[in-house]
Amino acid sequence: MKQIRTQVGIIGAGPAGLTLAHWLKQQGIESVIIEHRSRDYVQARVRAGLLEQNTVDILKDLGLADRLVREGHAHHGVYLSFDGERIRVPFDTYTGGRHITIYGQQEVVKDLTDAWLAGGNTLLFEAPARQIADYDTKQPKIYFEHEGEEGVVTCDFVAACDGFHGIGRKTMPKNSYNEYSITYPFSWLGILANVAPSSEELIYAYHERGFALHSLRSSTVSRLYIQVENEDHIDNWTDDQIWEELSVRLGTPGWQLHSGPIFEKSITPMRSYLIDNMQIGRLFLAGDAAHIVPPTGGKGLNLAIADVKHLVDGFVEYYRQHSYRGLEHYTQTALRRIWRAQDFSNFMTTLFHKQDDHGSFQYRLQRAKFDYIRMSDAYAATIAENYVGLPFDALTRFP
Ligand code: APR
Ligand code: PHB
């Protein structure tokens, strides 16, 4: 049996696991990563691409942002559209200069993986973790498979950064947490297309035919989404139909959507989910392993990185000062931001998706919110500060 000994055993090479490994290394703490999938599979997974200011700052501090700084797009505002009326919420005026950066999640994963392996560190691909054992002792273990052989990582702590379908959450005793979830009655059909973006900043749109989002990846690649029914199938949509729908839903007088060849399309369901305990003994959960937000607002990756920050703080305190205090409070600290992001993601989802008939009570509430953004600096500022992401001290200041 393959035997590995390390300080922190990490399951999952997504944004959470990779950032944790790099950050621990910077702090002189050793770790290894065990990843179920192949390197190609992980790096090809298309996901949202919105990085909060906090996330970019962390990646810069870790020396992992060279390509992100070169190729990412800084955005200082966002367009919101309702029934064809488009307004802009500027970030700089409302958040003291904080902004977001558009850079594909799989590019982040690629940069972090390349840097980790180039540094001679351990990351096993195609190595599914099968069991987390002894988390209530000082030597927890991760049993895994790799190249037809069984292996075990013996460590001081296990960090389950293994996404929504991982084994981390399943290992937590059912009576150790409460589960909260909302399943939405709609999904997103997302495309990547070889065409210059039709807008320099993102556009979130409510339309009577449903939600639409205009985003981008580069000066030649656009990323767009439309709301579809949960039962819908990608084969029901021709490329022309997708462009037509995007053009109608995002439309506003004097603006035109450019179309081009679509090279990726898929449908993703929408869910809000969390468990309110992210640790048991020496096992800690971070990222999608513990929570999912609907993508309206692009919080998923940023929440995963925020969890990692709190976990690193706890590990550093443990190894430097032999104190468990930070680790003990990990869930409690992380949950403040998680609930904030759950609220904001749900708010953006509810505001911009079609849920009931045009003219219904629900529709009129949505319309009233949109009108309020236009008339109130306070409301626009609320949206801006949540969208760019609250600073860490803003959420830890109150008792
Ligand atoms: N053994 C090893 N690896 C596993 C196992 C297992 N048993 N189960 C899952 N994994 C791996 C998955 O293959 C995946 O690569 O864990 C990784 C988890 O990565 P992500 O799903 O990207 O989760 P996370 O790092 O928390 O990042 C959150 O991902 O879903 C998006 O929108 C979300 O942007 C957010 C981000
Ligand atoms: C994306 O670019 O993929 C994206 C941007 C913002 C979102 C969701 C997805 O809210």
UniProtKB/TrEMBL annotation:
Keyword flag NAD: yes
Pfam families with a match to the protein in the record: FAD_binding_3
FAD-binding domain boundaries: 5-345
UniProt keyword annotations, A-Z: NAD, Oxidoreductase
NCBIfam families, alphabetized: PRK08243.1
Protein's UniProt name: 4-hydroxybenzoate 3-monooxygenase
Organism encoding this protein: Nibrella saemangeumensis
